[in-house]
Amino acid sequence: MFGAYILLFQSHTEFTHFLWKQQIQPGKTVLDATAGRGLDTLFLAKLLFPNSSSRLIALDIQKDAIEATQSRLKTEGLLDGNNIEIIQQSHSDLRLFLKPNEASLITYNLGYLPGGNKSITTLLDSTKSSLISAKECLEESGMISITFYPGHPAGFIEKDMLIPWIFEWDPKAWAISRHSFALRESSPSVVIAQRKCEQ
């Protein structure tokens, strides 16, 4: 039919959630490195539970973010009886909570807390440190999902410095792709890095 078209994704969130659905299996360990207001944590919890062997960890450096995430999951009845840890901690410390080769998915939604203090943001050095740790904690075929927000100064620096660095990861060990919307000024960019299985 002339004039018809298929709109696959209207937002970066729809895109990442679609990929996470393909990646996550019951019984796996998932870490949300930047919990924020808990929307992604809730989405992940609904994919993982109920399954008694699943594990979900959500980190955020801000108390307001932790409280918002806890409240959101509690309202949905997901905190009781499930292996969910919501911890006030920097994403750069994720190795405190994961063993090597443990996680199936590690997600980052960079930037500042929506509705919070915009001067408190993720930063280049701590995010890079966290990603180095994430690589070590990912299982074979595991995925790292990173959403960059270049519309504010710290977010622009993270995007400008980290994406070229990620693209230098060993192509024999990693499959890496980038998604962004054209014709949208300061549009978020999503980078997906999937660890390849050893032959």
Q: Which secondary-structure class do the elements indicate?
A: alpha/beta
Which sequence of SSEs, written as H and E, runs from N to C? HEHEHEEHEHEE
Would you state the CATH class?
Alpha Beta
- The radius of gyration is 17 Å
First-last Cα distance: 46 Å
Q: In what order do the strands lie side by side in the largest sheet?
A: 3-2-1-4-5-7-6
CATH topology: Rossmann fold
Q: How is the main sheet built? A: 7 strands, mixed
List segments where confidence is low: pLDDT < 50 over at least 5 consecutive residues: none
The second-level CATH architecture is 3-Layer(aba) Sandwich
Number of E-type strands: 7
The average pLDDT is 92
Number of helices: 5
Q: What number of domains?
A: 1
Classify the helix fraction into a percent range: 25-40%
General shape: globular
- Any idea what the CATH superfamily is called? Vaccinia Virus protein VP39
Describe this structure in words.
The protein has a single domain (17-195), classed as Vaccinia Virus protein VP39 (Rossmann fold). The chain contains 5 helices and 7 strands, in the order H-E-H-E-H-E-E-H-E-H-E-E. It has helices at 12-23, 39-48, 63-75, 124-137, 153-166, and strands at 29-32, 55-60, 84-88, 103-109, 138-148, 174-180, 189-195. It has a 7-stranded mixed β-sheet with strand order 3-2-1-4-5-7-6, sandwiched between helices. It is globular, with a radius of gyration of 17 Å. The termini are far apart. The model has no long low-confidence stretch (mean pLDDT 92).
